[in-house]
Design a protein that fits this description.
By secondary structure, the chain is mostly helical. The chain folds into four domains: 42 residues, no CATH class; 69 residues; 86 residues, no CATH class; 26 residues, no CATH class. It contains 16 helices and no strands. Helix 11 runs antiparallel to helix 12. The longest helix is centred in the middle third of the chain and has 19 residues. 15% of the residues are buried.
């Protein structure tokens, strides 16, 4: 891309700003093209890559401490918004009724559309407390390290395992397999496969049967500290360079670009 084209493209990010500045573009023009302040241009002009995007943080709500209780009462059949508002006020809630009414209205709309309460954004954080979590939510809890589970999540998993022995076996075997992967404890694989095949969790038996089809590779992955990750990374890089040629680059040019990249 030529410098003229770069200067006419106001949608580029950090590198664009740097290229225009180095090409001699006026600072005021850059501010006008991109709709940013001069201070931002000065901050970005020496960067070779776009600045890292700050992680998104969901804003907390004054209602958050009472969401688990509201979900619990909702699942018990209490759908009266004013009554729920009075109940949380008795527990210390001092903010406006409108916030509580908005949350209850979201639960009511989710129910009318046939969705679980956990589909409501504010309810996702407390979905384990009272709402019906999705299979994805439960699978994430199964894979989470035991020490990172909150008290509420741990109690939920305990109730889940008490209600179904197959789920209890699935949780135990999932945690044990995750520990093997994290700790490279491949010597425990044979014993784990035997337990999985005889457990009441049918899905774990199927998973064990699938592992046995490529047992040597699985054992190596659970034992060796190295992997094919770097190789896969270079393959991805090569494919990217090849696609940038839009099918017009010959092998010599591709080789030169790969060596220079």
């Amino acid at each position: 891309m030529s410098r003229d084209c770069e200067q006419q493209n106001p949608s580029s990010t950090g590198p664009f700003r740097t290229r225009n500045y180095l090409a001699g573009a006026d600072l005021r023009d850059i501010c006008q093209w991109l709709g940013i302040s001069a201070r931002t241009v000065y901050r970005y002009k020496d960067l070779q890559e776009p600045p890292p995007r700050p992680p998104y943080k969901k804003k907390a709500s004054v209602l958050d401490p009472w969401v688990p209780y509201l979900l619990k009462r909702w699942n018990e059949g209490c759908h009266n918004g004013k009554r729920l508002y009075r109940e949380i006020c008795e527990q210390g809630y001092t903010t406006s009724e409108k916030i509580c009414a908005t949350f209850i209205a979201e639960l009511r709309r989710a129910e009318a559309s046939g969705k679980p309460p956990s589909s409501v954004p504010r309810a996702r954080k407390g979905s384990v407390a009272g709402a019906s979590p999705t299979a994805k939510n439960v699978a994430a809890l199964f894979m989470r390290r035991e020490e990172k589970l909150s008290k509420e999540q741990d109690e939920y998993l305990q109730r889940l395992c008490d209600s179904d022995r197959a789920l209890a076996d699935a949780l135990r075997l999932t945690q044990e397999f995750a520990k093997m992967v994290r700790g490279l404890e491949g010597e425990k694989l044979d014993g784990w496969l035997e337990e999985a095949e005889t457990s009441e969790a049918e899905v774990m038996g199927k998973f064990a049967a699938g592992l046995k089809k490529d047992l040597l590779a699985v054992r190596a992955g659970l034992t060796e500290s190295w992997s094919t990750g770097p190789v896969e990374g270079f393959i991805t890089k090569l494919k990217l360079l090849k696609r940038q040629g839009y099918g017009r680059a010959n092998f010599d040019l591709l080789r030169a670009r790969t060596l220079a990249a």
